Amino acid sequence: MGEPEEDMEGGDEQVDLNVPELWRYVNPQGPDGAPGQGPLVGKIVNFLNKKEEEELAEEIVRRSPETGQSLLMWAALQQKFVLVEWLLKKCKRAAFAFSDAEKELTIFDKFVEKRKEREQEEKERLEALAEAGDEAEEEEREPPPPLHEVVKGDLGEEEGVDEFKIRRIGEVGIYQGTRSANRTKSGLGQTLFINGDCYIGEYQDNKRHGIGCYWWAESGEIYVGEWANNQRAGQGRMIYQNGGRYFGSWRHNDRVGKGRFTYPTGDVYSGDWEHGCRHGSGTYTVAADRSVFTGTFIDGDFVTGEWRLAGGVRYFGVFENFKPIGKGVFFHKHGQEGAYTQDGEYVDGVWHPSVVRRPTGGAACIDISVQGRILTLCCAEGTSLDTLALVQVANFKPLDQWFTQLADADALRRGFTIQDVQVLNVDWEQAPTRTVKSVTIKVKAVDREGVAYAALGHPDPDTLTFTSRTSLLVPVLRCGDQEKLLHVHAPNLAAADLQAQELMTVRQLPNGDLASPHITALKRVGLDLHSASILDASKLSAANHGEGTFTHPIQCDAKHNVFFYLQDVTPEFWAALDQRLADANGPRRGFESIAASDAAAFAEGTLSMPSIAAMHLVDTLRKRGKLPACTWEPMRPPTPPAPAAEPRPDVPKPPPEDIPPPKEEPAEEED
Fold it and tell me: Is the backbone peptide bond immediately before 146 cis, with ω within 30 degrees of 0?
């Protein structure tokens, strides 16, 4: 996904001498006064680059003769990213060109100065107390006067400066722009916030809404693009402090949807995003060696797909931390004469090669180890999978674990041998993450006498289905003796009342944290679910009645685990819970949302068997005092920081050549 191009060159255009030279490049005219080829961003930048500091300050405050907009306002609304970045990096706050605001800016800067002085005095006082130790006796002192009085005293009796204006600037900053009939910010405007940040662009009902540009004064980070209800939403471009750049889709201030991130190293990721991470289908290009990873990303990590190396070498397999693991296939001289493939397996980062094959154009196949012997896994008649899909099947954990169990002493003692394994069907997770959900295989097994073995512990001994494990989350909020369960609420078209409620499905990350769109919504509510705050029922002993696994993994059916989270909240949080949930759900895809219900009322609903088992387990754990309780922190920073830049992942090195062939928040608006 590329960014829109900006015209950096000029052409043959007419010159209107009544228009300032700067704005002639913004609206060039063609022959006979006809409209020109569009804004000439390159000429605008070159024109400004030649100006001395004082001349530059004069030029950037010149407004359009047609619209009255400043240059930055015009560039932000037209999303001329190059020009916006140049103006803000070169001129910083001056680029916003606050008109006729010298006194207001003087007052604002005086507030900044006095705040810093007061913070420094308090820091020195605390340091002195710390040095004195336990013997120190803090002297009683009068509280300092309000800052607006200090600022007024410094300014004296300047004309046009009254106490109300001073106080207003100190509390809400400076706003210039249009207002609605009820005096809220609406239309075009710009704000200088009390923390020094600035926004310029469109407003609606006192909120950033439409197209606009936000500049973080402390870090110098810049966002230009679409807004909705004070949040980055829609298409936009973010420039990070470390030099990283993202252009693409946003929702609720997060990178969500399609987008392209350019890292400070020159690496580029282009593809799907979810809750601010690479998630879904995408391509990551490493600048240093031009190797390319194309496939599926989950929670920022490349998990399965194609790894393209130099010299026409391609590898299909599964990955962890951008390093190949498990079974895979190398394609050598891909698309060239003499091409060949090699199966094998990465174990502890080392490639163990297997069979060399010449491409035949036939069905894909891959070698696997079963009971200490090498078998060829391929598709049954009527089933077709490409090489990458077959590699994903071979690395599917429930199937791989079953192959491992077949080699244990008990299986060998029963005396059957697997002779052939074919893939009958594969069920895939829905987009954007195309990963294996379940696999059905056809197995041919014989006993010691060579007779077909019909006692594999399955109704149909020839076919087995393996399904991935599902994890459920049971989050409980408590305020005094009141409790509510957070769950998923969605229409059920099969039910007469069109109502359905279930527990949330989640997945566990390598660091123990949980992830899913539901977790993202809960974080917007204000809940902090991390590895230390959740209870994994699968780690409870049977003595504690903590069977988090509702079906045994050997039975090849779905394996459900349950996580518990108990949060003590303040009465204020409890009273605002419904509104917090409404804000967190937002304009969700489809009808699904997060709701809160009394736990008993929830359990009386029509639930799936896993949800019923989970609710029984949470009752048992509550009675035994086993649920880990967290405490709601009521204090939150008034100005969330800018979003973190996307970190560049570590990428693996290709296999050694001596192996024989084939071998990543704005200030709140106040009126």
Answer: no
Rounded Cα–Cα distance for residues 295 and 316 (Å): 10
Buried b (16+ CB within 10 A) or exposed e, 416-455: bbbeebbbbebeeeeebbbebebbbbbbebeeeeeeebee
Q: What is the pLDDT of residues 591-639, one digit of tens each?
A: 567 888 887 667 666 566 666 666 777 777 767 776 666 765 543 333 4
Q: Left if phi > 0, otherwise alpha if psi is -120 to 50, otherwise beta: which for 183? A: left
DSSP helix/strand/coil, 413: helix
CA angle 59, 61, 64 (to 5 degrees): 90
Separation of CA 204 from chain center? 27
Q: CA–CA distance from 505 to each of 64, 276, 508, 537, 565 (Å)? A: 54, 19, 10, 15, 14
Q: What are phi and psi of 32, to 5 degrees?
A: 60, 25
In single-letter form, the type of residue at position 434 comes to R
DSSP 240: -
Closest-CA residue to 215 (of 233, 234, 235, 240): 240
Q: pLDDT tens digit string along 145-170?
A: 888 888 888 887 766 678 888 999 99
The label of the residue with tokens 């693996």 reads 652
Percent of residues in the chain assigned helix, strand, coil, to nearest 5: 25, 35, 40
Which one-letter DSSP state was computed for residue 77?
A: H
Strands 416-428 and 373-379: parallel
CB 49 within 8 A of CB 63: no
The C-alpha atoms of residue 369 and residue 395 are separated, in whole angstroms, by: 12
More confident residue, 522 or 74: 74
How far is the C-alpha of 279 from the C-alpha of 101, rounded, in Å?
Answer: 46
Amino acid letter, 397:
K
